[in-house]
Amino acid sequence: MSDVHDVVIIGSGPAGYTAAIYLGRGGFKPLVVAGALTPGGQLVNTTEVENFPGFPDGIMGPDLMDNMRRQAEKYGADIIQNDAVSISRDEASDIITVVLDGGERHDARALIIATGSDYRKLGVPGEAEYAGRGVSYCATCDGFFFRGKPIVVVGGGDSAFEEADFLSRFGSSVTLIHRRSTFRASHIMVERARSNPKIDFVLDAVVQEIHGDNDGVQEVEVRDTTTGKTSVIPANGVFVAIGHTPTTGFLNGLVRTDKTGYIEVEGASTRTSTPGIFAAGDCVDSVYRQAISAAGMGCRAALDAQAYLTSAAA
């Protein structure tokens, strides 16, 4: 079984790379399945990151992930750019098999899933074009860049209201757009927003298109769902808060997930319902979804996997 890896890590965001750094330093030479198109996770599509400790002047998202990758490789991680399409586990040998796009297979004694989650998109013209130039999916990441500017938040749940409240500290105004006249958000969140003089509401409305120029987003075109009429709202920042989808569809039911697809772990550990399989980052965390919290969880996953491997070898 010399061709069996000690650990395979699926995912290359802060959680995956941090796990690789710890395991590499521990002598386990992990294999990282980094993804075919966007290795580095969501941060590769982020501009300046100002809240990651150790960078008082900030750091560009792609640079941060490149630093993490190089650090993982320095300590022995083997990184391949491909996508995992399925996993399985042999009950007799406890060996876990990861199948990649194209059919390549890798066997491992332990597996860390750090595949993150994807922001749900509006799917309207201008959204992709102005992503990172006015369109954002993370208020705590990008709110500071819109100080003194008009901001739009799209959504009607707690996340949307939390983002609107947070962004009201920076923007000259915040307009929350929701497709219905009622909200999924909790009563206290709604009342807090209604009492905030900087937050306005445009209800029974959907975003039709996002307009901008070389400087970024300039306005949002919305359509009234009851009358069909369209109008334009000036905005330099558009924050989309309509939810996340964890990247866990390839798991084939091998580990327990909640009804929305997030992987369930045991208490404060990263252990999943299946021995030898651990999970970290945004595929587990539906609450915080920050680079630093994902990195911390990646550390825990590495230590949990190391303890599992050490125990199995004893």
UniProtKB/TrEMBL annotation:
GO molecular-function terms, A-Z: thioredoxin-disulfide reductase (NADPH) activity
Cofactor dependence: FAD
One annotated Gene Ontology cellular component of this protein: cytoplasm
KW S-adenosyl-L-methionine (keyword) present: no
Keywords: Disulfide bond, FAD, Flavoprotein, NADP, Oxidoreductase, Redox-active center
Manner of cofactor binding, per the entry note: Binds 1 FAD per subunit.
Record's catalysed reaction(s): [thioredoxin]-dithiol + NADP(+) = [thioredoxin]-disulfide + NADPH + H(+)
GO biological process, one term: removal of superoxide radicals
FAD/NAD(P)-binding domain: residues covered: 5-298
EC number: 1.8.1.9
Family from the record: Belongs to the class-II pyridine nucleotide-disulfide oxidoreductase family.
SUBUNIT field: Homodimer.
Protein name per its UniProtKB record: Thioredoxin reductase
Species: Bifidobacterium ruminantium
